[in-house]
Amino acid sequence: MQFKTLEDYVGETPLVRLKRINAGDGNVILAKLEGNNPAGSVKDRPAMSMILRAEAAGRIQPGDTLIEATSGNTGIALAMAAAIRGYRMILVMPENQSVERRQTMRAFGAELILTPKSGGMEVARDMATRMRDDGEGVILDQFGNPDNPEAHFEGTGPELWRQTDGRITHFVSSMGTTGTIMGTSRYLKQQNAKIEIIGCEPAEGAQIPGIRKWPEAYLPTIYDASRVDRIEPVTQADAEEMTRRLAREEGIFAGISSGGAMHVALRVAAQVSNAVIVSIVCDRGDRYLSTGVFPA
Length: 296
Hints:
By secondary structure, the protein is an alpha/beta fold. The protein folds into two domains: 6-37 and 156-288, Rossmann fold, CATH 3.40.50.1100; 43-139, 3-Layer(aba) Sandwich (Rossmann fold). Helices cover 36% and strands 17% of the residues. The protein contains eight helices and ten strands. The protein has helices at 44-56, 73-85, 99-107, 120-133, 147-163, 179-191, 236-250, 256-269; strands at residues 15-17, 28-33, 65-69, 88-94, 111-115, 138-139, 170-174, 196-202, 230-234, 276-281. Its EC number is 2.5.1.47. InterPro entries: Cys_synth, Cys_Synth/Cystath_Beta-Synth, CysM, P-phosphate_BS, TrpB-like_PALP, TrpB-like_PALP_sf. It catalyses: O-acetyl-L-serine + hydrogen sulfide = L-cysteine + acetate. Pyridoxal 5'-phosphate binds at residues 73, 176-180, 257.
């Protein structure tokens, strides 16, 4: 008998129907629980994909140093994947990310370099690039690596099509690196071009972990605007309130970007009837406890 390893359990996450948060007018809202991945987020998929495909192409080999700029979940997932596969992992991130995220990365053996919060992810990405250029390691580049969306084209999309028996009518996802929405959209549109793909971005002034509106110079190169039918803004207050509602009313303990996406899913539900709307629950709420989003 051949036993599985941890990396074999990335993906195939549950898809559950909301029971108490009312979708109205014959609609069904389904939550894809990506927090059930081994390192606790949807980013486990691209992290394993980028490392395994880079190994197969001969670009990296165990013992090498990997560098990545991250706001949290990708860093945690890469730290886990690096621990499994035998890499030194250096993560560059803004200093204002939650203490739970930093502690989790270090628990997996990653080394952290913190950049000023005023510079955001842009400064972290610039520093990672300089380190790479100075020969300090290899950047997998979640923002420009096609192996990021490919993980969702091969995994998330087929899972949703199968789990809904092809009945999915709308797909809602927060947008950060945009890998999730790019890969999933490509697969779902190949099955049914009428499926509507909705992206979530932060409203003006909102700071929601995991949801970004990038300056043009930093827009992820994996992003293809033609793969998103529409983009909906979400406020920080609405994202945080829906995150609390998911826990209180549905027992779904999720992160703030997941609340933002679910708020948009309900907005979509108010405009349609007899729809099957899938929203990505990107991660678990336990890595946001220190942010104050949940009552103490």
